[in-house]
UniProtKB/TrEMBL annotation:
Name listed for the protein in its UniProt record: Galactocerebrosidase
GO BP terms in the entry: galactosylceramide catabolic process
Keywords: Disulfide bond, Glycoprotein, Glycosidase, Hydrolase, Lipid degradation, Lipid metabolism, Lysosome, Signal, Sphingolipid metabolism
Domain Glycosyl hydrolase family 59 C-terminal lectin: 496-669
UniProt-annotated location(s): Lysosome
EC number: 3.2.1.46
Gene3D superfamilies the UniProt entry points to: Aldolase class I (3.20.20.70), Exo-inulinase, domain 1 (2.60.120.560), Glycosidases (3.20.20.80)
Catalytic activity: a D-galactosylceramide + H2O = an N-acyl-sphingoid base + D-galactose; beta-D-galactosyl-(1<->1)-sphing-4-enine + H2O = sphing-4-enine + D-galactose
GO cellular component terms given for this protein: lysosome; membrane
Residue ranges annotated for the Glycosyl hydrolase family 59 catalytic domain, each copy included: 43-337
Main location: other
Length: 669
């Protein structure tokens, strides 16, 4: 009733969908589901990652009701993806794939538990599903943690304090309980640090927080756990990334929970859905993994950044309200709507004779859920690792229910067929229930299908009214940053790629520039990717060619400060160092430069500007065709500079180095 009521409020609806038909059968085989001899491993849930990085950046800027609809598709039980787990980045001010996420401690004497959007996202997830599990994991760390070194383990007590403060802040300021904490995403682990992290957690009354290590590969963590008895005692879960559905013998020998703690990362079309369907089953069937977590939750970042649209759904247009519920959402529902963390897998082989796989789970109270997938090789390739060839053919599968399942009389049936040849997919449709006759039933399976057969009657395919149609980023866009109590620390649609740009209240200003946007990272972070040596925030439409960017700028660094506005910027994310475009720089020493790259190596023009620090100036960059010109405070400073490449790209603002600087009255046309 509660789900239906909230559906009505949002104009969304839930239903069973249309009926489907079976396929022509060729191969036949029988499979036994029996709990009499005990159960398999405990199921820990299906989840997704927000962050690693800035993957939810544009989501927060959506207007209602669209933002709530997107969140419902992700988190609301028996609605859409109904996720069991949300994993978020602990922002560290560094580039972590598609942008930077702000740290709760930019500096050693600084704590702020309201930066960024992960706190908000966790609360929205909890609001919809109070039982959702929360995971925190750092990709980068603020520079002060390493005291000048690009390494978080030289002062493990400092790093442990920093991470635990994030967990404490989640509880104190947002009433969020973090269930699991990771070490350092896809980078080296340090045994001394992990032990100290456990000690620090316990010292602060956080005994319930479990540790995942090492969010990289199965080795060397599995081998080290077998050698180090003390470390074995403090690591609760071995998390591996992109395991290709396989584990290693040492991981099994540790007797720890094994998770694919990051997986998928694949373009969210039908092939992406096939990838996701296959690994959701086969991570357990082949690799004993009891949780699979997708990178990423929702593709809410500019699509031309790295790994565009590699989310379970797409929401990259807050200016239009357009979003798309992609096929992976409904593939997720096949598992998540009919299981819960704490259920157990049955002890079955799980491989189908004609190719494909099945898993069976029970709550131990008589409920049974079976998930079958028959994804073919070319229709289920993930982005990584390479997929060895296999074949799948139509087949008839007969299941015998034994033990406590023998008395089951009917099973609800949910079905998806990914239509690659026809281009017409049928997703998460409820079919007629299957009658179980004397403990058995048969199913004709075609290729590229997913079936869920379950005793649960709670499944729902919910839908909201069609969102608005897609629109390009506004061709005339202004932001004066005049907001007294901003709901988020960052201005809408700006996508920070190195550094962090935050709303700032300039208390000493006489009035014109009280509310500004300020770059606040003043020391290079402990990096995960190749952050630029300059800071930069992107905005707009990657396809823009002819563009005028105007912005008021304020250099704070007297010695060697500098800022820029730019157009036709062609790179960001992990490739930000190689960004090209047209960059108009002014420096505190009174000079200016025009460069064709962020690094400032390809100089197109230079000269004197008269700009000084601690004063506001207005920069205007105009790019038309193959010619660019620049104005300072409304007067021409340089013109007729020839620009050949790139031919299009985003607008941007930024600074010469990791330095304080302010921006106001941004306008792009």
């Amino acid at each position: 009733a509660a789900v239906l009521w909230s559906c009505l409020l949002l104009g969304c609806s839930c239903g069973s969908g249309s009926l489907g038909v079976g396929a022509a059968a060729i191969a036949t085989a029988t499979y036994v589901l029996d709990d009499a001899g005990g159960l398999g491993r405990q199921f820990d849930g299906i989840g997704a990652v927000s962050g690693g990085g800035a993957t939810s950046r544009l989501l927060v800027n959506y207007q209602e009701p669209y933002r709530s609809q997107i969140l419902d598709y992700l988190f609301k039980p028996n609605f859409g993806a109904s996720l069991h787990i949300l994993k978020v980045e602990i922002g560290g001010d560094g580039q972590s794939t598609d942008g930077t996420e702000p740290s709760h401690m930019h500096y050693e004497n600084d704590e702020n538990y309201f930066r960024g959007y992960e706190w908000w996202l966790m609360k929205e997830a909890k609001k919809r599903n109070p039982n959702i599990k929360m995971i925190g994991l750092p990709w980068t760390f603020p520079g002060w943690i390493g005291k000048g070194e690009n390494w978080p383990y030289d002062y493990p007590d400092v790093t442990a304090y920093y991470v635990v403060s994030w967990i404490l802040g989640a509880k104190q300021y947002h009433d969020l309980d973090i269930d699991y904490i990771g070490i350092w995403n896809e980078r080296a682990f340090n045994s001394k640090y992990i032990k100290l992290l456990r000690y620090t957690l316990d010292k602060h009354g956080l005994q319930q927080v479990r540790i995942i290590a090492s969010d990289r590969l199965w080795e060397p963590i599995s081998f080290v756990l077998l050698l180090d008895f003390e470390l074995h005692g403090v690591v609760d879960v071995i998390g591996a990334h992109y395991p290709g559905t396989k584990t290693v013998p040492n991981a099994i020998l540790t007797k720890k929970k094994l998770w694919a703690s990051e997986d998928y990362s694949t373009f969210n079309d039908e092939v992406g859905a096939g990838c996701w369907a296959r690994i959701l089953n086969q991570n357990y069937v082949n690799g004993n993994m009891t949780s699979t977590i997708a990178w990423n939750l929702v593709a809410s970042y500019y699509e031309e950044l790295p790994f565009g649209r590699c989310g379970l759904m797409t929401a990259q247009e807050p200016w239009s309200g357009h979003y798309k519920v992609e096929a992976p959402i409904w593939i997720t529902a096949h598992t998540t709507q009919f299981t819960q963390p704490g259920w157990s897998y049955l002890q079955v082989d799980g491989h189908l004779k004609g190719g494909g796989s099945f898993v069976a789970l029970t709550d131990g109270l008589g409920n049974l859920t079976i998930i079958i997938e028959t994804m073919t090789h070319n229709h289920s390739r993930c982005i990584r690792p390479p997929l060895p060839h296999f074949s799948v053919t139509p087949q008839r599968a007969t299941f015998y229910l034994k033990g406590s399942f023998y008395m089951i009389e009917t099973l609800q049936v949910w079905h998806s067929r990914l239509g690659f040849e026809s281009g017409n997919s049928s997703l998460f449709q409820q079919l007629h229930p299957v009658k179980v006759w004397r403990g058995s039933f048969s199913l004709d399976l075609n290729v590229d299908e997913v079936y869920t057969l379950t005793t649960l009657r709670t499944g729902q395919k919910c839908g909201c009214p069609e969102p608005p149609p897609p629109q390009p980023f506004p061709s005339n866009y202004k932001d004066d940053f005049n907001i007294r109590n901003p709901p988020f620390s960052e201005a809408p649609n700006f996508a920070d790629q190195t550094g962090v740009f935050e709303y700032f209240v300039n208390a000493s200003d006489p009035g014109d520039h009280v509310f500004t946007l300020r770059q606040v990272v003043v020391q290079r972070p402990i990096t995960w990717a190749s952050d630029a040596d300059q800071t930069i925030s992107l905005i707009g439409n990657f396809k823009w060619v002819n563009v005028t960017v105007t912005c008021d700028i304020y250099i704070e660094n007297a010695r060697d400060g500098g800022v820029f506005v730019a157009g036709r910027v062609n790179n960001g994310g992990i490739y930000v160092r190689r960004a090209q475009g047209v960059f108009f720089w002014v420096f505190a020493d009174g000079t200016y430069r025009v460069t064709a790259d962020l690094a400032g190596e390809e100089v197109l023009m230079k000269g004197l500007s008269g700009v000084r620090h601690n004063a506001w100036h207005t920069l205007t960059l105009n790019i038309q065709g193959t010619s660019a010109s620049g104005q300072l405070n409304g007067y021409p400073l340089w013109e007729n500079v020839t620009v050949s490449k790139p031919s299009n790209g985003w607008a941007a603002i930024g600074t010469r180095s990791f330095e304080f600087a302010q921006f106001d009255n941004f306008h792009v046309e």
